[in-house]
Structures are given as C-alpha cells and as structure tokens.
Specification:
Largest sheet: 6 strands, mixed
Number of strands: 6
Distance between the termini: 62 Å
Mean pLDDT: 86
Oligomer: single chain
Length: 612
C-alpha cells in the first residue's frame, strides 16, 4: 500500500540523499536510532515548504529506515506539510489513520486541511471523532471548523458550533470571532454577522473585511459603504479584499463618482498590481455603464486572466456593444487565453441582445465541441432568451423541451416574458403553469401574465390574476430608480412625494412633458395595463421612477452633464421613448441600467437600437 501511495522508496531515498548542501544529510547507518532519523526527517521536512515531491521523498526514506507508520511526531509534520502545500487530503488522511493518539495540533491540522479543500465535510466528522477521543478543542480548532461550516453553508450546524464555542469559553477570542463573522456572512445572515462584529472589542482588518463583504455580496451596498467609512475613520488601512468589496458595493448602487475616488485611492496605495482588484475595478466600471473606463483599465492591466476577459466581454454585451463583445472574444482566442463558462455566458448574451440567432447557435456548439464546456442552466437560459427576443417563441419552447436538465424558474420566466412581448397566449399559459409549480408566489410572473391579458384587452382575466395576487398575498415588487449626486445616492419610487425637492421635481416633470410633446412625443399608453381613461394612463406614465430620477438630476446638475440611472425593473416602452427625446431636447447623455442591460441614450438614439 505504501509503495502504491508513494512510489518506489529506493528512488525517493536516493533522491533525498542528493538534496541541496544546505539540507542536513541523513546517515543510512544501522546505528542511527529511530528517534534520530525522525528528528532529521522533521528537519528536512521544513525545507520541503514548496515541493510535494521532496516531502514524499522524506516520507519514503523514513519508512525504508524503519520509522513506524504510527510515529506521531513524524506524522504530524508530514500532515502539516501536506496541508501547507495543498496536497491531496486523501494522502494526509492515510497518514493520520496510522497515528496512535494524535495530539491536538494534528487534529487541528487535519480540520484545517479539509476546511481549505474542495470537500470540507470531513472537517466536522473529525471534530466529532476528536471529541470522542477526549481531546479538548483549543484556540485553533474553532476558527478552522467555522471556515469549513461556512463553505458547507450549513446554518443549523453553524449555530450549534457557535453555541458550543461560547459554552467552551472561546467566543471572546479574535480568531473565533472572525470565523463567526465570516460564517454568518457566508450564509447571507448579515445581521447576525454584524451582531458578532459589534460585540468584538478588537476589530482587525479580517473582521472589517468579512462584515463589509457580507453586506456587499448580499444586496446591502449602502451598509457596506457605511462600514467602509467607519473603518477608515478607525484608522484601519484597507487591503485588496476590502477594495474588492467596496467596488462591488459601488457597482450595486451605480455609484460611479465614489468608485472613481476609490480607484484613485487604490492607485495611491499601490494595489493596482493586484489582479483581483483590477478585475473588480473593470467589473465596476462596466456595471456602472462607463465602458470606456472599463476598456482603459483592461488595456492597462499587465496581467490578465479569464476573469478579466470575461468581465470585459460581459460588460460590452450588457452595455449594448454586442458586436464589440464578440470581437473581444476573438481577440481572446487569438492571444491563446482559454474561455470559461462565464465567458460564453457573455458571448451568448451579446448574441441575444443583438438579435444574432445564427451566431448564437454557432457559439453554443463551439462551446461544447471545441472547448468541451458542458452547458449549464445559464447557457440554456441565454439561448431561450436569444430565441424569445427574436420572436421565435415556439422554437424557444422546443429548445426548453430538448434540454438535458430540468428548466429552472428563470428559463420559464424568460419564455413567459417573450410570450408577453410577442403575444403568444397559449405558450404563456404553459410557462405560467410550470412557474406555479416551481415558484408559485413570484410577483413578476403574475404581472407578466396580467400584462399579456391587458394587451389583448382581456380585462376579466386581468382581474382574475390580480384577484389571485390579493388572495395569495403576493406583493408586486415596486419599481425604484437610483441616482448619485455628491456623496449620496438618491432613491425614487413611482409617484413618490417624500423627497425634500418634491415640488421642484414635479414642476420639472411638467416642463419635460411639455417640451417632449412639442417634439412630437406621444405617450405609449399600452404599457399602462389598466381599464382606465387615456388621460389617467398618461398621468401614471409621467411619474415612473426613472423619469423622476432624471428630473431630479436635470435640476441639480449643470447642463451637458451625463445622467446615470439604476432601475430595478425593466424599462417600459414609454420611458424608453421619452428618455430618447430627453437626451435630444436637454442635450444630455443618459445611461439607464435596468434589470437586464444598459441603455445609452444620446442625441435622441439608444445603444440598444430599440431591440431590448
């Protein structure tokens, strides 16, 4: 078994005797005691910090010269070396299984190894065995164990270990507290992470990073930015992990000015050589609709990986530059970079939003045949979207039926949206039935079906759908829009009158409407799916959140200043038509990011070419 695990021990021991002169030499004479061989092997292991091959040489030599497999001293150092080198944990586990009475250091090293591996499950099993062996956990046990549980996303187990750590008196230790903050943030329980964070007497950079990233990655960007400011005031210097979380929060909010300052600060403190930070900056500019700056960051990167290429390709695609995204993909191939799953999501997305059906099919086939990437649900979703947007709704349904996996709610919702846009009631009913089985209370599905019925003036069916929403207590997600001014992000809802500049905003909306009508603007009232008078429909359209946000910015920014809006729902046809004219009449470049893409409005045109 040992020969199978380590190879020929004679070969390894021969190699070991020819190590660099700075290494202590092992004598092979029979007079050497086992203890002496173990001592020298342990010393040699300290020189194997970057070479798995030499670590196995040392192990093989020890076995050949009579060191028993159960020797705890050699075993713990071998296991530590394996974990440090990220060698296979199966190797470490075989060594561990021979050791008689391993000490707490060895148990902790094994738990750490599994916590840092792709399969963290055995970490908790080892913890239990350690308890049964009457080995008490120490200050290192719980940080490693909490890291493993965070990877497992086992909330109940995490809460139990939290209780045990408190009971055993370890909760006040910094590393345990950091582990708890990271664990709860990984679960998405950011409030619990923050409670632990608040109770910490000494908050180090790791704790700040964990809680900031927890808020940033769980849809709470405002809190992430607030904590970043607090950290700064506390005199804690950010590192690369902090800045990645900060750029993520700025991306979520569309806070371009704040992100630009963060970019300048990153350059000042010398973090622009960090590839993860550069990728985060690139992604931030792309998600804020500043594709020129994203391309500039990409061009200046000294080192690029698949994430860099994928971020730019996806960024170009969602900003409406589909053909440029495909050119970027070709350049990536020319340079010999291997595309990944995310890369092809961007490529297929670009084809979808530019109506390039044949090209989309070709790239889908190349992904499978040429790059041997098996499509995931996201790739199938892109293909359904590609067909649906092009009006090939029946083909989209047939494609769904041919999928080798069960379609998820997003797939059926994409089909339902295409049915609503192109008027396919029969297929819409099929999609809705599937969605009722998978996500019966998703408000967007009710709205899509209601809109389809309303477009066909089937008011009784509209009332039936709306009645079901009331009975099932399904609440429609309210549309809101965000704009950044100064150091603040302002939020607007449809018809909202809570803003301090409420009167000025509504006065500007009246002025905007009047100027647009002089340019020939006619409200697209088909988007107001209610059986009410035409005038009421026009009033309802006037107060959509993105129009209110634009009116606010027209009041508070100098002429010619670009306006950037982040909207949580899809831009309606009327707002799209109106904003095109606003960009022309008020000489403004307006960038609107909705739930699926960017619209760059300038001089009365939009980058989407009215295909969205």
């Amino acid at each position: 078994m040992v020969d199978m695990l380590l190879g020929n021990s004679d070969f390894y021991s021969h190699q070991l005797l020819n190590v660099t002169p700075m290494h202590p030499k092992l004598s092979t004479s029979p007079q050497n005691s086992i203890a002496n061989i173990v001592k020298k092997c342990v010393t040699l292991l300290q020189f194997c910090a970057s070479c798995k091959f030499k670590l196995k040489q040392v192990h093989a030599f020890a076995i050949k010269h009579g060191v028993p497999l159960s020797n705890p001293d050699l075993g713990k150092h071998l296991i530590y070396g394996i974990v440090t080198l990220s060698a296979p944990m199966s190797y470490a586990h075989k060594i561990f299984s021979f050791i008689q009475d391993p000490n707490i250091f060895t148990w902790n090293t094994m738990i750490r190894g599994y916590a840092e591996s792709e399969n963290p499950s055995p970490a908790y099993e080892l913890y239990n065995k350690m308890q049964y062996s009457c080995i008490k956990p120490d200050t290192h046990t719980y940080p490693f164990l909490l890291k493993a549980i965070a990877k497992l996303s086992d909330v109940r187990l995490g809460e139990m270990i939290h209780s045990v750590s408190v009971r055993n008196g370890f909760e006040s230790l910094l590393f345990v507290q950091n582990g708890l903050v990271h664990m709860y943030a990984s679960f998405g329980h950011v409030e619990d992470a923050y409670k632990v964070f608040e109770l910490m007497c000494d908050k180090d950079l790791v704790a700040w990073n964990s809680v900031i990233n927890g808020f940033a990655s769980n849809g709470r960007p405002n809190e992430a930015l607030t904590l970043f400011r607090e950290m700064f005031y506390e005199g804690i210097s950010p590192d690369g992990f902090t800045m990645v979380s900060l750029f993520s929060a700025c991306s979520e909010l569309g806070a371009l000015a704040l992100g630009r300052r963060a970019h300048a600060y990153t350059t000042k403190i010398g973090l622009t050589e960090n590839m993860k930070v550069n990728n985060a900056i690139l992604d931030f500019y792309a998600k804020c609709g500043s594709i020129k700056e994203a391309k500039k960051v990409f061009a200046e990167m000294k080192e690029r990986n698949v994430v860099s290429w994928s971020s730019l390709i996806v960024g170009l695609a969602v900003n409406g530059f589909g053909k440029e995204a495909l050119e970027c993909f070709k350049e990536m191939e020319t340079e010999g970079s291997m595309p990944g799953e995310a890369t092809f999501v961007g490529v297929l997305y670009a084809c979808s939003h530019c109506g390039m059906v044949d090209e989309g099919y070709n790239y889908f086939k190349r992904m499978i045949n040429e790059y041997e990437i098996m499509p995931k649900i996201e790739h199938y979703g892109c293909m359904v979207d590609l067909l649906g947007r092009a009006g090939l709704v029946k083909e989209a349904y047939e494609f769904i039926q041919s999928m080798p996996m069960l379609p998820n709610p997003v797939i059926w919702r994409t089909l339902l949206g295409a049915c609503t846009t192109h008027g396919h009631s029969a297929l819409a009913e099929i999609a809705r039935r599937k969605l009722l089985q998978l996500e019966p209370k998703h408000s967007g599905d009710f709205v899509l079906l209601s809109n389809l019925y309303a477009s066909e003036r089937r008011w009784l069916d509209v009332q039936r759908v709306r009645g079901t929403m009331v009975r099932e207590r399904v609440k429609k997600t309210p549309g809101h829009s965000l704009v950044e001014l100064g150091n603040h992000v302002h939020e607007f809802y449809m018809g909202d009158r809570s803003h301090p500049q409420n009167k000025e905003i509504y006065a500007m909306l009246v002025e905007v409407t009047n100027k647009l009508k002089q340019e020939g603007y006619v409200p697209v009232t088909e988007n107001v799916f209610m059986d009410i008078e035409e005038e009421e429909k026009e009033n309802a359209l006037s107060y959509h959140s993105e129009k209110m946000a634009i009116a606010f910015m027209l009041i508070n920014t100098p002429p010619m200043t670009p306006i950037r809006v982040i909207k949580n729902l899809r831009v309606c046809a009327d707002c799209h038509s109106a904003i095109k004219l606003i960009s022309k009449v008020f000489y403004r470049e307006i960038v609107v990011r909705d739930c699926s893409r960017f619209h760059h409005f300038k001089d009365g045109d939009c980058s989407c070419m009215d295909y969205w």
